[in-house]
Amino acid sequence: MKRPILIHPDPRLKKTCAPVPDITDELRALADDMLETMYAAPGIGLAAPQVGVLDRLIVLDCEKDEAAEPKPIAMFNPEVIASSDDLNTYEEGCLSIPDQYADVTRPKEVTVRWLDRDGTLQERDFGGLWATCVQHEIDHLNGKLFIDYLKPLKRQMITRKMQKLKRERARA
Q1: What is the Cα–Cα distance from 94 to 5, expressed in whole angstroms?
Q2: What is the pTM of this model?
């Protein structure tokens, strides 16, 4: 089921999410809903707080090649356990901040540990777009948005645009 995506500013996007104590059928269904919502948006990552759920759950699929099989991943309680000293700068966007993009510099490679849909502990190294995306989504679980990396003036400008967008959508 597709879920509505919260638009910044929304207080739920600034909250730190609680760890998931147990992988339940309800949480697996939420992960499926989030993947459906992400693909429909379209996007490459989505965090539970973006659909109003304050649990440590993210989904991502950074497979950009149209001919390739999708590679969806659902991560419960993800954490970066190692990151490279080498940095990478990507132009990031966010489904909660539509049509706004900015360069963000993050570690080029990260090692992430998480629980999968079956509650099995996983660990994997990510590089390139996958590394950027997984860090962006984990930031959401800690109440941090990509615009928090920007200079205050640029961040305020984007926030004002989002407030205007929300007013326009409310009138529609």
Answers
A1: 10
A2: 0.96
